[in-house]
Amino acid sequence: MQLRRKRAYDTAESSDGFRVLVDRLWPRGLSKERAAIDLWAKDTAPSPELRKAWHAASDDDWGTYADRYRAELDGESAAALDALAGELKMHDTVTLVYAAHDEKHNHAVILEQSLRALLP
């Protein structure tokens, strides 16, 4: 299985395969048609508290944020993560869709790592 990441505001393409929105909030200004989302996995997104803390932090706090999000995925979000991994096993190509501007420092990067550890 191919697992990819893509910004929600980038054009959806057939090569994206199964598109999963991994944000807790729907991307601002994006229509459902344009988003072309097959599954909204909001329960795997960072908690509202962690999301707010990240937005208030500087980029220097990336490691702390990443560690806290991994802890959520191992704890309170573990069932949602396992359910998502089970769903993704049925698809050849999966694209994790997120709204963040920074392509390297966002929760989808960490979520992808966690899913890769669960998927064959």
Structural features, described:
It holds the Pfam family DUF488-N3i. This is DUF488 family protein. 41% of the residues lie in helices and 15% in strands. The chain is of the alpha/beta class and 120 residues long. The chain has a four-stranded parallel β-sheet with strand order 1-4-2-3, covered by helices on one side. Helix 3 (62-74) crosses helix 5 (107-118). The mean pLDDT is 95.
Overall pLDDT metric: 95
Portion in strands: 15-25%
How helix-rich are the residues, as a percent range?
A: 40-55%
Strand neighbour order, sheet with most strands: 1-4-2-3
- How big is the Rg? 14 Å
Distance between the termini: 8 Å
The secondary-structure element order is EEHEHHHEH
Largest sheet report? 4 strands, parallel
Number of helices: 5
| Number of E-state strands | 4
Ranges with pLDDT <50 over ≥5 residues?
Answer: none
In total, the number of domains comes to 1
The general outline is globular
Quaternary arrangement of the chains shown?
A: single chain
Secondary structural class: alpha/beta
In short:
By secondary structure, the protein is an alpha/beta fold.
List keywords for this structure.
120 residues; alpha/beta; four-stranded parallel sheet; 4 strands
Compile the SSE list and pairings.
Elements: E1 2-7, E2 18-21, H1 32-35, E3 39-40, H2 48-56, H3 62-74, H4 78-88, E4 93-98, H5 107-118
Parallel strand pairs: 1-4, 2-3, 2-4
